[in-house]
Amino acid sequence: MASAGVNVLRYSALVGGVLYGVYHQSVVRSRQKINQVDAQYKQQAILIDKAKAEWTKRTMPADKKTAGGGIITDPMDPKFDLEAYLTMTQSDYAGI
To answer: Labelling 49: which of 1, 7, 73, 91 has CA 20 to 30 A away?
Structure first.
């Protein structure tokens, strides 16, 4: 039979291990939750960028587009629109 001091040491180690396990589990869960929130935020940012690009395409005046539906990229063309061209290049680089 073990003495009282040994039993106190055993149960102290058991309680310490259980408390450490609870603490460690809470740390792991909080990290997972933070990573999940970050992933959701990044996904929403991607969707917002896509929506902005689509809105820009839909609201662009017809005279700023070419017959094929694209933007005039030749700066020597009299119908060249610098703002529309920069918006197009910005939306192209936003996807990178």
So the answer is: 73
Confidence of residue 43 (pLDDT cuts 50, 70, 90): very high
- CA nearest neighbour of 81 among 60, 58, 50, 56: 60
Give how far the C-alpha of residue 40 lies from the chain's centroid of Cα atoms, to the nearest Å.
Answer: 6
Number of helices (H), then strands (E), in the chain: 2, 0
Look up residue 8 and give its amino acid. Answer: V
Task: In whole angstroms, give the CA distance from residue 73 to residue 77.
Answer: 8
**18/13 Cα distance (integer angstroms):** 9
Global pTM value: 0.51
| Residues ≥6 apart with Cβ < 8 Å to 94 | 49, 53
CA 70 to each of CA 38, 50, 63: distance values in angstroms, whole numbers, following the listed order = 35, 18, 11
